[in-house]
Structures are given as C-alpha cells and as structure tokens.
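Need residues for this backbone.
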C-alpha cells in the first residue's frame, strides 16, 4: 500500500488477521509500524461495508476520524469481526481477548495498546499515535533524524562501524531488548536508533564519539542540545541509561565552537521554527532586493534637466517683447 493508495483509498483498511496486518504494515506504516483496531460490538455480517463497521461504535468512529487526518504518515487497519478471537493481540494487561482495543503493531515486537478505549476523544488518540508511530529501533539518517529527535524524547543512539553487519545486529538486539523489556520507568523516556559512525563522523565529533571506539551508545536531546556519553559502556544499554538516571553520567552541552558552531546553531534554529523560519527568510531576501532596487533607481531630484520644447521658447520670447514694449510706453508718458 503506497502513499498514493493511502491518500486516495479509505483511511482504514480491513484485515482478516493480525498476521495479515503485519504484512500490510511493511508497506503501509512507518518502517513496519501500523495501528490495528477491533471492537466486538462491530460484529456485523461480513457482507456489510467497511464504513458501516467503522460507524457502528463510538471507538471505531473516533479511530476513523484520526485515521483520516493521519493517513499520510501512518497505516490504519480494522480487524475483520468475522475473524477468530485468537487473532486479537494482547492488550496492555497481557490477556487475549476480543477487544475492544487499538494497538500499535510491529513485527518481532509485542503489541502496544492505547490505554483508553471506552472514553476518549480524537485529540488523545492522535497524540498517542504520534508518539508511537515509529519503529522500536530506527535506522537514523538525514531523512528522519530531526523528525524523530523533535518528538519530545531524547534519543538513545547506538553508533556502529561502517558496513559492519555484526555490529549492526548486536546494536539492534541490544536496543530492541531494552526498549521492550528494560526498566519501564526509564525506557519510556527515550526513542532508539542506530547510526553509521563513518557517514556521520564529523557530526559525532561534537559528542565525543571516536571512530576507534565503536560500537557504543550515547544519548542525545535534540531539542535541548545536550548529550550523555561514555564509551566504556559499549552496547550495555541497561547500565548506561540507568547511570544517566542516577546522575553518574552527567549531561554535556552539544555543539561546536567558532564559525562552524555558529552556523550549526543558526541552522538548528531555522529547523526548529520551520516552516515559519523559511517564510521569514524569504521576506528578508525580498526586502533586501527591494532595498537594492530603490538604491539603484535615481530619485526625482537626481533626474537630469530636460530641454524645453520649441513652443515654450516662442511663448517666452513673446512675453519678453510685451514687457519691453510696456516699459517703453511708460517711459514716454513720464517724459
């Protein structure tokens, strides 16, 4: 299900099983992440339309409303009510059931379910989906780094050597294990990702991450521009984040000094306030262009004098002759 199909098709797709939803999520969601809803009260004959199923309960109505708003960034599915109850994912309590539920699904990871399914509004559900609409462990790149970093949580990043598949596998296993089964009071404070230490070498220098000390994890708050780093922990995510919580690993200010650091800070501010910052830059450029044009255009007082037309010269000559004649007449009278 590509982007065009999601935008032109229904906001919610019907699926007969969780397994099928996982397969569709690989193309419909964000890196294999999607959202699945089910409500037993929506159990209607299988030949009834999807719209009727979504309109049958308050929960599915709100779910469809949010799906319409967010279909461009997430995949939404409704479990076919004719499917067996065993297809229903475990709720937050860990019990199997026939719903109602709205769950985040991802291959290889336990479903994460919305805590409110009986009494909630669209804004609450949308906020929860925005917070959970990313894989458990992201492959960080220039396309998604700032997007994930500005979602409100610090990033726990594993840095691996370039093209080292063994380090990549170990890093993903370590991060996934902690993100799923680590201390819930700590793990929920972070998003998790893996980054290529060679491609991002210059960027990582400001966090004291040396290419000869990989793999290692460090934590970074993109919005606050602070980081926590200690290479001796390697991929020991559990101890690393626990010692941050205890204050054993202190935070440090990120960023470079000098001209390069100044331009990086300016770029960060522009990205922080986008798209309004882009509008401001365009307006500033427009004012500069207008100022240059006005400066190069001469004013009225700088325009060169233009010669009078011939008609104006004749009129002036006639006026002078009249004044001379009048003066002679007055002289005769005086005599």
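Answer:
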């Amino acid at each position: 299900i590509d982007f065009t199909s999601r935008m032109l098709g229904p906001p919610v797709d019907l699926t007969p099983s969780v397994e099928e939803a996982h397969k569709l999520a690989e193309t419909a969601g964000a890196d294999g992440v999607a959202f699945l809803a089910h409500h037993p009260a929506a159990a209607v004959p299988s030949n009834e339309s999807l719209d009727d199923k979504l309109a049958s309960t308050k929960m599915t109505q709100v779910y469809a409303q949010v799906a319409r708003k967010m279909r461009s960034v997430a995949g939404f599915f409704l479990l076919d009510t004719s499917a067996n109850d065993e297809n229903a994912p475990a709720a937050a309590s860990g019990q199997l059931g026939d719903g109602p539920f709205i769950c985040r699904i991802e291959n290889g990871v336990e479903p994460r379910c919305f805590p409110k399914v009986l009494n909630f509004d669209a804004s609450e559900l949308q906020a929860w989906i925005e917070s959970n609409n990313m894989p458990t462990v992201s492959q960080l790149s220039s396309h998604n780094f700032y997007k994930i970093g500005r979602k409100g949580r610090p990033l726990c990043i594993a840095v691996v050597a370039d093209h080292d598949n063994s380090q990549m596998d170990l890093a993903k296993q370590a991060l996934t294990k902690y993100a799923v089964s680590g201390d819930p009071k700590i793990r929920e404070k972070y998003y998790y990702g893996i980054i290529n230490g060679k491609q991002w070498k210059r960027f990582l220098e400001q966090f004291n991450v040396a290419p000869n000390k990989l793999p290692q994890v460090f934590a970074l708050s993109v919005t606050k521009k602070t980081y926590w780093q200690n290479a001796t922990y390697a991929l020991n995510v559990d101890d690393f984040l626990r010692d941050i919580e205890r204050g054993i690993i202190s935070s440090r200010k990120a960023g470079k000094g000098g001209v390069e650091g100044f331009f990086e800070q300016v770029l960060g501010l522009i990205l922080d306030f986008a798209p309004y910052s882009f509008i401001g830059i365009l307006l500033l450029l427009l004012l500069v262009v207008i100022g240059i044009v006005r400066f190069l255009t001469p004013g009225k007082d700088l325009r060169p004098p233009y010669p009078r037309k011939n008609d104006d010269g004749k009129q002036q000559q006639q006026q002078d002759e009249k004044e001379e004649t009048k003066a002679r007449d007055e002289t005769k009278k005086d005599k």
